[in-house]
Hints:
heterodimer; A: 12 strands; B: 6 helices; about 75% helix
Amino acid sequence: MRLVAAALVSVLLMTADHKASHLEAVRAALSTVVYPLQYAVHLPIRVGAWVAENLSSRNDLIAENERLKIERLRLQARLEKLVALEAENRRLRTLLDSSVKAGEKVLIAELLSVDMNPFSRRIVLNKGRRDGVFAGQSLVDSQGVMGQVVSVGPFSSTALLITDPSHALPVQVHRTGLRAVATGSGKADAVALAHIPNNADIRVGDLLVTSGLGGRFPHGYPVGRVTRVRRDSGQPFADVEVEPSARLERNREVLLIWFQGQGALLDSAYRPRVAP
Amino acid sequence: MTTGAGQRGGIVIAASFVVALMLTALPMPDWASLWRPAWVALVLIYWCMAVPSRAGVLVGWIVGLLLDVMSGTLLGQHALALAVTAFIAHKLHRRVRVLPVWQQGVTVFGLVFVFQALVLWINGIKGMPVTLAAYLAAPLVSMLLWPWVFVVLRDARRRFRVS
């Protein structure tokens, strides 16, 4: 009797959760219960990393410091050029009467080192609704796009990585501007491009960036490089594999992004201009 | 049994589930994640066999719901699987309790297989790819770990007089 009741309630819950998002409140409330557990798992690992950092030898630290100084110098030089380019870009866009790409706000979040379902690619972040995180927010690291937030609790949130089989990301090839959709493969280090015609101009080594179409992700963030293009004339589409540039399985800190025009279906920059 | 002892027993059972949930979330390398034992199912099976009056379908369902939130699956997925597992374990407890530990392990293999198959079926309905190894890996590792889990939980039960 109890089993029948439990099974019925489970099936109802699963249907409701799958078809609509009415259960976000339940999930958020339960995540407050689960978060301390996840944090308790995360803490010793974090402490281990901290101890390793503190016990690293003076020579290592000096070497790292040296490397960081050089890197900073190089980035500084590029940044100076970037400021000039940004000003020029803004001036040209005003001339074209196009919308100016406003600055984006970012927040640094930390990954909790906890494993979730081995059949999907999800991660837990230590920022939640209290910090203004919302479902659908995009997530990047210093190298590229990582994924998007799918559910938000008061103190933590869950994000879907771009390698998850249920994730799709609008991208374009940086070299040619060819637009495509990158879908997750379920493997840790590969996404696939869907519906690329056999005669499309795409090569191994091409850089993919987000196209900004769809309004979920900001425009122009690197996604990955093409590692394999297989054209089979018997198949309608080419088989294109991409290695994500974000370090999906390794990094500890990630960036959450707020950008203008988020949620809009089409950025005004892409809307065809109507002649007066 | 006094009411005080009863409450204390509840705390021990809850604590064992907390530990099991934490072990489930413990980060493991990518290749090993398939071989993670079904910790929560193991603990649930133990309590269903040892103190069937305290653990059953409802406990399994509630813990399963927490497991769902923790692993980001559909709400109710693990809850359903654990409720069914608890139900079968409950039905079998008289017969299995008297067996030697390694024979109990074989039963545990079957129970964890039912749990894993239910979870994977629902994954399959959602359109997620499923391999044969995924069906067998977790039950196998759980069976091999059962004697150890059994001894640890039995000692905990005796020390704190859970009944």
